[in-house]
Amino acid sequence: MFNRFQFLFQTNISRESQMRAAINQKLIEMGERERLKELLRAKLIECGWRDQLKALCKEVIKEKGIENVTVEDLVAGVTPKGRALVPDSVKKELLQRIRAFLAQHST
Amino acid sequence: SQPRTASHPDSDAGSVMSPAGCSHVNGFKVDNWKQNLRVIYQCFVWSGSVETRKRKAKSCVCHLCGAHLNRLHSCLHCVFFGCFSKKHIHDHAKNKRHNLAIDLLYGGIYCFVCQDYIYDKDMEQIAKEEQRKAWKLQEFCKTSGIGEKYSMWEPTKRELELLRHNPKRRKITANCTIGLRGLINLGNTCFMNCIVQALTHTPLLRDFFLSDRHKCEMQSSSCLVCEMSQLFQEFYSGHRSPHIPFRLLHLVWTHARHLAGYEQQDAHEFLIAALDVLHRHCKGDDNGKKANNPNHCSCIIDQIFTGGLQSDVTCQVCHGVSTTIDPFWDISLDLPGSSTPFWPLSPGSDGSVVNGDGHPSGATTLTDCLRRFTRPEHLGSSAKIKCSGCHSYQESTKQLTMKRLPIVACFHLKRFEHSAKLRRKITTYVSFPLELDMTPFMASSKESRMNGQYQQPVDSLNNENKYSLFAVVNHQGTLESGHYTTFIRQHKDQWFKCDDAIITKASIKDVLDSEGSTHKRTQ
């Protein structure tokens, strides 16, 4: 049973996701993922993105009614716009940080 | 099923909601469930230690598709990780009839029967504790000095009671003018009014006073810090009529005698005197000893305004360097047109490139003044210093740089010249930017320059030495008769002009074109 699981596991992953998984592992192991999360959180608050998202969420809540709204309603209602609203400068900065980290810790 | 509501601390609804779980957790809350839940949080959600991180990195992937993204959840009843977005965890829940799962990103508990995240009081408590524990283990917690992870305010029972008894709410919108209030001129007191406007709009100071952080240890009623606290209450009360600061003025006369009287005084002098009195009144008796040693004081004034200025005196013969560091509350800059020579500037400093100077008319910039301030200065043959290396008096050069930057930096342009021959006001226009990077003027930058290290192109991602303008104090008129006004920034990008009792909206252009005798920036 366990071996079959492993076999399924290996054939379902493409090379790209393999690389993603490896990078993710390294980031978590070295605690960098947590640091990046904190950096991202600070940047998104600074640029006002968090306030914008809060406003979007409030709209969804008003629409659905506060008694009935679920987390899924919020996720569905807010995710596409939320992703689009992230400033390019924040994306760039995160990417640079990750690149620098990988360069430092390449095996 | 019972009605379910979640806590929304900043919802618009007038009534307060309490967190509630669901009855489906009862099946989970058996035996040693608390410890099991803690282990799940420590290993898979908030991994603080190296071992748990390693384990998290390896094992937190979906058992069906291997992905680590897609809002991964862990089943609470068995060892299974599944994607939420791809419904892999939902399939598992249905097949195994395991009703509860935990979100590995945020630690929320999901109930498949209720089809929503639930907020069980006991589980929430465990989650909070584990998050706090993991946070403390993180390295950056130790280096950044942030001991606690920020958590939103949640009202206590007593506070809920108070909120219910006081239903009036004030909403801070983007356009609201709360915090803006005029100040009546009590007879040439604009020198005080202009500084008060700047102080009441210093964000950290405002936060300190509005959260009631001052605990007064003075016996008499002449505590200036208490008066400042009152002043903040007046400014943020929402009243639009101008405030009459007679008590403040009286306290200033009591504690800073040299500023008493109805003549026009110097605003910069008032700023320094006010900071000094506030600093002394902050800690009651203890401050008697600490008054002369701000390096050891942790009062709010020192935390916000005190920086360290490094002075290096280099002997021209043996090249030995004698270094001292002095605390400062402001940076006083000489201007071109004064009787002290403004140039030559130190070669190789990159201030202008960094701060994007390039005022079209080639006007003097703030960074020009800062470059001059931090240039190496030959002290001349009439001012020889005793060199401990040479054991004799030698010629030397002296250079000032910033060792430690304050959170709020006050720049003072020395427009009033009092020399033996003349007393006059220098009206040379000095342009200043909205954003200022102090990196080129740091002691550390100077050291890397001297060690031959290539001056790194300024890391635009590093915000440590960057400042943002939030207040500008201007003096109109002559030395004998003049008037002070202040521009202050509100809501990140709105500017207002404070002219005693009159507050008017201003544009950024108005601010940057002004003379700017004193201006303040915050990091």
Automatic annotation (TrEMBL), chain A:
| Protein's UniProt keywords contain Nucleus | yes
GO CC terms in record? DUBm complex; nuclear pore; nucleoplasm; SAGA complex; transcription export complex 2
Report the family membership: Belongs to the ENY2 family.
GO MF terms listed in the record are: transcription coactivator activity
State what this protein does: Involved in mRNA export coupled transcription activation by association with both the TREX-2 and the SAGA complexes. The transcription regulatory histone acetylation (HAT) complex SAGA is a multiprotein complex that activates transcription by remodeling chromatin and mediating histone acetylation and deubiquitination. Within the SAGA complex, participates to a subcomplex that specifically deubiquitinates histones. The SAGA complex is recruited to specific gene promoters by activators, where it is required for transcription. Involved in mRNA export coupled transcription activation by association with both the TREX-2 and the SAGA complexes. The transcription regulatory histone acetylation (HAT) complex SAGA is a multiprotein complex that activates transcription by remodeling chromatin and mediating histone acetylation and deubiquitination. Within the SAGA complex, participates in a subcomplex that specifically deubiquitinates histones. The SAGA complex is recruited to specific gene promoters by activators, where it is required for transcription.
Mind listing the GO biological process terms from this record?
A: chromatin organization; mRNA export from nucleus; protein transport; transcription elongation by RNA polymerase II
InterPro entries, A to Z: TF_ENY2, TF_EnY2_sf
* Chief localization: nucleus
Which Pfam family would be a valid example here? EnY2
Which domain of life does this protein belong to? Eukaryota
Coiled-coil features, chain-numbered ranges: none
Q: What is this protein called?
A: Transcription and mRNA export factor ENY2
Q: How does it assemble?
A: Component of the nuclear pore complex (NPC)-associated TREX-2 complex (transcription and export complex 2). Component of the SAGA transcription coactivator-HAT complex. Within the SAGA complex, participates to a subcomplex of SAGA called the DUB module (deubiquitination module). Component of the nuclear pore complex (NPC)-associated TREX-2 complex (transcription and export complex 2). Component of the SAGA transcription coactivator-HAT complex. Within the SAGA complex, participates in a subcomplex of SAGA called the DUB module (deubiquitination module).
Q: Where in the cell is it found?
A: Nucleus, Nucleoplasm
User: What PANTHER family does the entry give?
Assistant: ENHANCER OF YELLOW 2 TRANSCRIPTION FACTOR
Q: Which UniProt keywords apply?
A: Activator, Chromatin regulator, mRNA transport, Nucleus, Protein transport, Transcription, Transcription regulation, Translocation, Transport
Protein's UniProt keywords contain rRNA-binding? no
UniProtKB/TrEMBL annotation, chain B:
**UniProt enzyme class:** hydrolase
Tell me which PROSITE patterns the record gives. USP_1, USP_2, USP_3, ZF_UBP
Q: Where would I find the UBP-type domain in this sequence?
A: 20-137
Q: Which reaction does it catalyse?
A: Thiol-dependent hydrolysis of ester, thioester, amide, peptide and isopeptide bonds formed by the C-terminal Gly of ubiquitin (a 76-residue protein attached to proteins as an intracellular targeting signal)
Its subcellular locations are: Nucleus
Q: What is its EC number?
A: 3.4.19.12
Name the Gene Ontology biological process terms.
protein deubiquitination; proteolysis
Asked whether the keyword Protease is assigned, the reply is yes
- Using the UniProt record, give the first listed, main subcellular location: nucleus
User: So what family is this one in?
Assistant: Belongs to the peptidase C19 family. UBP8 subfamily.
* Name this polypeptide is given: Ubiquitin carboxyl-terminal hydrolase
